[in-house]
Amino acid sequence: MKKIILCSFIFTICCQLFSQEPLVPVKSESFGLNHHTNRDMAFFSHVDGNKNLLIIGTTEKDSTFTDVIATKLDKNFNVVWQKTVSQKTNLSYDIPVKSFISSKNELYVIGRSALKQSYSTGILFITKFNENGQILYNKTIGNEDGSDYVDYTHMNVSLNPDGSLSLVYAPTDNMTLDGHDFRFLKINNDGDIISSFTKTMQNNGVVSKIQDQTFYFITKSSADDATINTFKFYKIQDQNIHTSIAITDPIFAKYYYNSPLFNHIQLNIDSEGNCYAVGFNPSSHKSGDKFNVSKIDTKNELLIYSITTPAIEKYHLIGSFINEQNKNIILANNLNSNAMDFLSIDGNNTLVVDTDPSGLLGTGFKLNTDGTFFLTSSNSNLRLFSNTLTELKAFTTSDTFELVDFSKIDANTIAVIGTSYDKMFPESQFLTQLNIKAEKIDDRQILHDYSFSGIGTSRSFQHRLVIDNDNNYLLMVSEKMGPEYLGKGGTNPPLNERIIKYDSNLKKIWEVEVPENIFNLLSSRGKSIDYHLDENNMLYLNLPRAGDYYGIGYDLYKLSPDGIFEFINHTYAAKLFHANQNLRFMSRDYFDYEDSSKMFILNKESGNLLQEISIGHEKFLEIFSVGNDNYFYTYEAITNNTPDFLHLYKNGVKVFTREFSNNYGIYPINVDENGTLYWVTKYNHDYILHKLDIKNIYSHYKAPSPIRAFKKFNNGRMYVSLEDNNTVILDDNLNFILNGDIVDTFNPYLFTYGDYMLLATGYTKSLRIINQNGAVINHFKTQGLIGSETAKFDKNEHLIVVGNFGDRIYTYNEYGWYRGSLHNYGLLNNILSLEDFENFNNSESNLVIYPNPTHSSFKVNKEFNTLDVYDLTGKQIKSFKGNFTATDHFDISDLVQSMYVIKIRTQNGEVSTSKLIKI
């Protein structure tokens, strides 16, 4: 689904320029194995005038981004056409809510693009297809960023004979017990809203029916006393023609007092406009096994009767409808006689009961357009009844899938649709492989069948980005090949490890799988697996496998620029991995039951061992080269009551040792390009950043609170982030210069860009740009986690980020699905140009562009003479000249989805700039 759009536009737009604006990629690509799918589900079915079957469902294409899929099958169940529809929103989960087929065989799908897989939040959309599958319109109701509304407390829609739609919905920020604004719309054949009005109604529960372009409601107020009038009936035709009736009948009020109305009351309207409410109270109190039927005379605004079935009869409501004789028929299971009863109310307002002689209980009901109806029965049969309650035929499905919907084709054949469930891998605890199923059956056999399984994806959950010397991007990827089990003792899905190569235009060049005997491509024993890329773009990796070193062994592999993955030699368990022109260095720290930490020096090409160095109970910090010399730092802590020691080795020989107070470990550490070691210690209330170079010159800075992260600017200044959210700027010798801005963040990742520091946070998925005085001059939202392994600047100084998008579905942790994503954010100084950020953010022009984001056009809240549009490279791509006011529209429908800079100039020469998102 929207490989680029959904990867690129997951954001919350803000009008304040200094707030967290979306950092929009110049180019994006998604990746992942299309190995499984777990969200192909059937929802609705229709038979058109030519006896073709239409199936409406969902399919999962990119992680949890779920699309609506519509399929048309001919009489023999061959696919005539199939269309997948996605909404261009920053929401994620598109599901159909209702669907209709018109007399012209046009298909209408009304759905919700839900926010974060919620059942209740999102925006509405309507998609209309002609009989050839062409999309006539795909319309969203409200702003596509979801800012119009959050929760749907109610929605209903009906297709009118002329092809228009009557729609009502109640958007609200929360489930208040008071009145809510209900919005009423009429949408014509072209998808245009031709009528719109709003009415406030009670909403502590609501049920509705739309018939003949008239809206009928029963609502419940917030009163908590059953003796008080708490219910109202509404009949609404348009903004000016509406009536409401207070329902004061004590039988009605008592029965529905503890009952939810939605999904438990059915409304039917007869030919004279009378409304019948048939409800089943699912609560555990005395009404639990009874149902209620009430009749409202809408012309005279009277409740005619409210009848609750006798206490001695225990019923479960199945369905109700108005038959051709204009009588309200109720279908219910009689739990006393264990049979289906057909009930109605006669002219004396007396309950009349006819019992189905088959002795079967009903499990579901569907009314056909010709007045016949289906009952699903306790024996798994589908029973077709005439309007006069005579059983016509019985049908049996294959019983290989969950039945979802069924439609009558003719007097002898029907179509059934549903969803099948299977395991994605043999050891799985979960039936998460969902497929759409359909069968055409008569009363004797299955005539035709159909199955659909989408392309799906796997869970792309670990990534590393390497940029080679030719500015190509190598992605190391781990994917889980099915839903994971997070409980104890469960079976986890198999892993796939592979490396993908893209060029700088994000075009995939090749991908190669790592041998199955390799445990992991990216981490081992809680540590990242080190790698080396040489001057010829040969990638070397020391990868774990099964072996005799406490159950693990390691192999050295190389990956050529052409994607050839080759084994070199068996090697050693290694914490650090370094290479120069001739040698490879691997270090392994001692365990409590081992005598010594060891350095292994190998031949670069063959991987043969040349030298082994034992250093006792010292732990390796970093291996590096300066010129032709090879170095490594080590750390030694003997006991909690003795000092700590730092050692430097040069070409395998210890150069010096430096003693420090005991600090219970050092973290984080960093070694710069000159071999200078920086590290942090925390002992009691001493929080110290240390600096030690290869000449044994030492300096330090004592911080007022614990140190979270530090990084040098290109000019030598040091930026330090503290746990109390303060930041400080130090000079090259770690002397205090000034305090920076307070930055409220957690677990930051720092990296430099030109004269700026970039501070990324995974928890909030944001990126701050910080100048050399520690001031935050811009703050962006990002679409993935930015970290040391996932974000790099390429040879063109473009920010490249690899990550994933998606989420867990619903509340089940085992359904974890993530699609991989690769973004090129371009030159960051082209996001209006870094040099202009401070002046831009301090602008007092109050320029407002709206709507923002936009699909096609926008307005500006000022009068001006010139408006210019610039892309992210600073190139002017549009210009408008004239005498413009706040009512003028500016069309950008021809531009691609991206971020743009808008610059306006007034007659007196005042210049204002702002940003605009095109989606």
Automatic annotation (TrEMBL):
Keywords (A to Z) from UniProt: Signal
InterPro entries, sorted: Quinoprotein_ADH-like_sf, Secre_tail
Pfam families: Por_Secre_tail
Domain Secretion system C-terminal sorting: 849-917
Protein name in UniProt: Putative secreted protein (Por secretion system target)
Native source organism of the sequence: Gelidibacter sediminis
